[in-house]
Amino acid sequence: MDFATLGIWGMFLSAFVSSTLAPGGSELMLAYLLNQAEIPTGLLLLVATVGNTLGALTTWLLGVWAARHYPLDKLVDEKQRKAVQTVRRFGVPILLLSWLPLVGDGFCFAAGWLRMSFLASLLAIALGKLGRYAAIVYLFTAF
Predict the structure, then answer these.
(1) What is the spatial distance between Cα 24 and Cα 18, in angstroms, rounded to a whole number?
(2) Which domain holds residue 118?
(3) What is the pLDDT of residues 48-91, one digit of tens each?
(4) What is the mean pLDDT of residues 108-124?
(5) CA 136, CA 143: separation in Å to the nearest integer?
(6) pLDDT tens profile 3-29
(7) Long-range contacts of range 133-139, CB-CB < 8 Å, 24 or more positions apart?
(8) Dihedral sign, CA of 103, 109, 110, 111?
(9) For residues 129 and 137, what is the distance between their CA atoms, to the nearest angstrom?
(10) How far apart are CA 111 and CA 38, in angstroms?
(11) Distance, C-alpha 110 to centroid of its chain
């Protein structure tokens, strides 16, 4: 495999893992690949956004699963309980902030828990992720 193919798959995997409950460094991977200038910027933006969105949807699905098996008062994590309350209060638009460290995963989990519309959740999550990665691309290519 050539560098571009490895870079694209690496970007996808890094973005996916970074958006699940596991920590990751997709922003650093994106910055590195942008600096190498061997993969088109638009393709990197697309791959990072899709990978990160799919990771967030995995967390959303975990919320759906958890809601079927555990009542709200049995959620293990206090952060998850707070995330459910926040998402219940603000609705799907809060998922535009799903990219935020520490709380973003909780928002996705809570949206799944509350069985919010899959399509509305997908759209809000994808727009939020795209905005974050677009800002990173801008910072690393404009200066």
Answers:
(1) 4
(2) 3-141
(3) 999 999 999 999 999 999 888 877 766 666 777 788 889 999 99
(4) 95
(5) 11
(6) 889 999 999 999 999 988 667 789 999
(7) 133/30, 133/45, 133/48, 133/49, 133/52, 134/45, 136/27, 136/30, 136/31, 137/30, 137/34, 137/41, 137/44, 137/45
(8) positive
(9) 12
(10) 37
(11) 14
Are the C-beta atoms of residues 56 and 125 closer than 8 Å to each other?
yes
Output the pTM of the full model. 0.91
Number of domains in the chain: 1
Q: Return the closest-CA partner of residue 133 out of 17, 31, 13.
A: 31
Supply 71's token pair: 């009542």
Q: CA 7, CA 48: separation in Å to the nearest integer?
A: 11
| SS3 at position 16 | helix
DSSP result, 24-89:
--HHHHHHHHHHHT-S-HHHHHHHHHHHHHHHHHHHHHHHHHHHHHS-GGG-S-HHHHHHHHHHHH
Token look-up 């509305």 returns: 120
The one-letter code for the residue type at 120 is: A
